[in-house]
Amino acid sequence: MSSFDNPQFEPGPERPMVAPPTVPEMVSPQPTPVPSSQTQRDPVWSGWDVLLIVGLTVVTLIVIQIGTAVAAWLTVYRKTNLLEVQQKPALALIGQFLSYVILVVFMAMLVEGKYKTPFWQAIRWNWPANAMKMVGLSALGMFTIFLDVLGRYLPMPKTTPFDQFFAHPSDAYLMAIFAVTLGPLFEELLFRGFLYPVIARRTGTISAVFLTSLLFGLIHYLQYRSLASILIVGLVGVVLTTVRVMTKSVAASFIVHVGYNATLMLLAAAATDGFRHMEKAALG
Description:
Layout: H1 37-40, H2 47-75, H3 82-86, H4 89-114, H5 119-122, H6 131-143, H7 169-179, H8 182-203, H9 205-218, H10 221-224, H11 227-247, H12 250-271
């Protein structure tokens, strides 16, 4: 039998006791921050959302235009044929105004409801920092009118469907108001706000500027029924989209758009004695 003197039972050297780490010394894994939808991608919406807005725009314009004409026929124009009522420019503008209001509200609800992002922030609606920049953008819109000079060297129709809005002074003034308010607002939100960033994310800036401007020109074909007019409007679209790219602001392209439309309306009003003698204007 072994005795307690056996080396295998001799105690080894004492090891210093190590205290367990205190709470501050313990390293706990930090949770990985989850990026918000805004940092995950820009814009937050998808191409399918843009297609939804475009489809809803077509349906809304048709339904509201018909509804406005029927309502006017039942209340004001009872003795007039319904087809004639539908062709009244003032009613067409009222229907378009109501449609655009509905569509802008839908855009805001889509962004804020589906993507939980403030609408004006997501759409890049950044107003110029000072009044001088606003004046400069407005002046750019006024100078963009020189693109219309191309119409003198291109085959342009003598009359267009758009001319019906200037047949009477009251319709012309209503058209002028629409052209510098809700009209450019909706078009800038749709093309430079929703459409451009989706295309740019897939194709790059230069291609997106070209494609956005092309679609902007094509959508105006029904107003002018002229390929030359599509070219001119498309070039205006290039200016507007370039401004949106350089300033990163849809509000900036909106100001340029308003400046362009306002210049058109003022020149037409000056040439026709306040829209009273449209035969004096070369609007064809």
